[in-house]
Amino acid sequence: MVILFAVFLLTLLVLTAVAIVRTENLFVAVMLTGIFSLLMAANFFVLDAADVALTEAAIGAGITTVLFLGALALTAEHEKSVSSGRWLSMGVVIVTTLVLIYATFDKPRLGDPQAPVHLHVAPWYLEQTPEIIGIPNVVTAVLGSFRGYDTLGEVFVVFTACIGVLFILSGRRGRHLPSNGMASSSTDQGLRHHLIPRVVGRLLIPFIVLFGFYVQFHGEYGPGGGFQAGAIVAAGIILYALLEGETQALKAVPRPALMGMIIGGAMLYGAVGIAGIALGGNFLDYSVLADNPVTGQQIGILLIELGVGIAVCGALLSIFHAFAAREPS
Amino acid sequence: MYYIVSIAILITMALALTRALLGPSVYDRVLAVNMFGTKTTLLLSVIAFLYGRPDFLDLALTYALINFIGVLAVLEFFQSRSIRRANNRVDGS
Amino acid sequence: MELMELLGLYNYWAFAVVLMTGLYAVITKGNLIKKLLGLSIFQSAVFLLYITMDKVDGGTAPIIQEGVPDQIYSNPLPQVLILTAIVVGISTTALGLAIVVRIKESYGTIEEHEIQILDRDS
Amino acid sequence: MDSAIDVLSWILLALGGGFVFVGGLGALRLPNFYTRMHAASLTDSMASILILVGIMLQAGWSLAAIKLLAILAFLLLTGPTASYALANSALLSGLKPGNSADESTEN
After folding, report:
1. Global pTM?
2. In this structure, what DSSP letter does residue C56 have?
3. CA angle, C94 as apex, C90 and C98 as ends, to 5°?
4. Which of A36, A51, B46, D24 could form a disulfide with B15 if both were Cys (CB 3.0 to 4.6 A apart)?
5. Is C61 an interface residue toward B (CB < 8 Å)?
6. Which residues touch A316 (CB under 8 Å, ≥6 apart)?
7. Which residues in chain C belong to E strands, given as ranges?
């Protein structure tokens, strides 16, 4: 029965994707991307991936929309339709789709327990996690401990992307633009004149941040972890910036603090790895962090999840501020 | 019973998506996105119970908390756009 | 049973169509933001493929429940890969958007053919 | 006693499903933007109350019930706020409320 739900949701997903590509109004496309993300999260949840669904929810519900709208405000809202070589590419795309669909007939069907993916390391992870690490959430265990190198790499990709955005956008804006001090003061007031969103939003911000901390520290026992928590806390602070204006949000969390968060989070992760070497183990081997290897693993995962959370929160907020601080040409 | 509720929610999601695709104004689409968000929250809560894993309600809670940031961003977008247009008119005259 | 076999492949078909829809946007659309939207659709399709592979019949999310000894759990590995990829995806999309904003400031347009004309003229 | 609670929760869930569906129908079929928003936002709140209370009765006293209560509280706060924000931005950019069918175009 639930598989039929999944089929229905996937059909809606395909329709939404086609609509995003077809529409010429970019604002509409961004709104449809919101629906696309909701459908993806629901699909992930139906397919038993609660952690992934939580990540998609935390990122897709607020931050993606805010970033794309920020970019639209700085560029243009409509695309000009040019159709050069449209039929050729349509043909190529359709042929490739058919080839891909033909190839799926050799794939194991959805949920087949004998599929090759389920026979290699996955059973080992599921069996050994309670013994080696002793936490219920296997996804967090694999993310933090078994594949810690991988996650370290991903954190540094986020770090690098954030530095890239800051390099590109935080310089002085283009020379041919008149600097208009009045415009900046009148546009950067957020939604201060809208009483209802302001009251409700300010009421919700503490809950959002609190929920972020819950997701951060409950990640060993339920769906959650550093990536989701960082995104949720960042969403809460972005909400504050929307309500009170961007400068006000920078007073609450100033730029140096954001820089400190990005660097500190990534460094914390690396430092835990080096502490493993210093105590006589391998890089990112947490077993040596405490007398009992299981406790050591748990401490290690807690610390690196904290590092991930801080770094992701700082990176997403810096990216948001980089877009929000720029004046449209 | 959970199935019946889920089916009602799924059909309504399809209706909301139709509204989002038809338009005609951009606000209709924002409305559809907002509706879709509430429906997803409800669907996730129902499916969490359907699966017998109520600890997954965290997901619905996330959407309940941060889904309206998108709509506020839209309000902010339109507001600053209208202010900018007013400024441009003043500058141009 | 035949129908169930086919339904079991539906996820992969949806993946193929969504993937190619994203690719179509990337190769035909001249607007740079539209290209980035296409790219993120493409990316989401890949996420969908990975998450499809993690499902096991009768399984549940890989968070071990106490007191349920014979519970089957879905595969945690694809979930780990995609979980990090989603956050990396939004960061790289933001990087792309930043470049688009700078292009708009330097060229005054984000349409590919207009940029090419401007480049040729200069 | 248990069966009475069961029956009550099924009734609430069924009503909630009905409200969800009616709201979707209204959002699709009504003639202009403000009427559509009216249909969608009112039924959203009502259906959330009915469905979540229905599930809550099934969950009994547990952490899940408290989480459901939190979800309900946040939905009831954010839903009307989002509707307000949306109506406000529609009004700001000059979409006039009226009783005629939709005459507005993409802007």
Report:
1. 0.92
2. B
3. 175
4. D24
5. yes
6. A63, A230, A231, A234, A238, C90, C91
7. none
Q: What is the spatial distance between Cα A174 and Cα C96, in angstroms, rounded to a whole number?
A: 18
Q: What is the pLDDT of residue C21?
A: 93
Q: Is the pLDDT of residue B44 over 50?
A: yes
Phi then psi dihedrals of residue C73, to 5 deg? -115, 150
Q: What are residue D106's phi and psi, to 5 degrees?
A: -60, 140
Contacting residues of B for C63, CB less than 8 Å apart? 55
Q: Please indicate whether chains D and C are in contact, defined as at least 3 beta carbon pairs under 8 Å.
A: no
What mean pLDDT comes out for the span A57-66?
90
pLDDT score at D60: 81
Considering only CA atoms, give the Rg of chain C.
Answer: 21
Rounded Cα distance, D45 and D19, in Å: 10
Is C60 in contact with B55 (Cβ distance < 8 A)? no
Q: Which CATH class is domain C2-59+72-121?
A: mainly alpha
Tell me how close the Cα of A34 comes to any Cα of chain B, in angstroms.
Answer: 7
From the list A197, A203, A204, the residue facing D85 with the nearest CB is: A197
- Give the residue among C53, C54, C72, C51 at the shortest CA–CA distance from C63: C72
Helical pair A26-46 and B26-50, crossing angle rounded to 10 deg: 10
- Please give the tally of structural domains in chain B: 1
For tokens 């599929």, the residue is: A115
Range A196-199, long-range pairs (CB < 8 A, 24+ positions): A196/D81, A196/D84, A196/D85, A197/A243, A197/B72, A197/B75, A197/D81, A197/D84, A197/D85, A198/A243, A198/A244
What ipTM goes with this model?
0.93
- For residue A328, cis peptide bond before it (omega within 30 degrees of 0): no
C-alpha distances out from residue B46 to B6, B9, C68, C121, Å: 7, 10, 22, 60
DSSP-based three-state secondary structure for A297: helix
Which sequence spans correspond to the domains of chain A? 1-79, 137-171+189-329
- The 10s digit of each residue's pLDDT in B24-33 is 888 888 899 9
Looking at beta carbons, which residues of chain D come within 8 Å of A200? 77-78, 81
Amino acid C80: pLDDT: 92
Structure confidence at residue A205 (pLDDT): 93
CATH code of the region A1-79: 1.20.120.1200
Chain A to chain C, count of Cβ pairs less than 8 Å apart? 299
Task: Count other C-beta atoms under 10 Å from residue A130's C-beta.
Answer: 15
Tokens standing for residue C59:
């399984």
Q: Which of A25, A200, A203 sits opposite D106 (nearest CB)?
A: A25
Give how far B30 is from chain A: nearest CA, Å.
Answer: 6
Report the residue from D74, D81, D106 with minimal CB separation from A196: D81
Q: Are A235 and B72 in contact (CB under 8 A)?
A: no
Sign of the four-CA dihedral D9, D14, D19, D21: positive
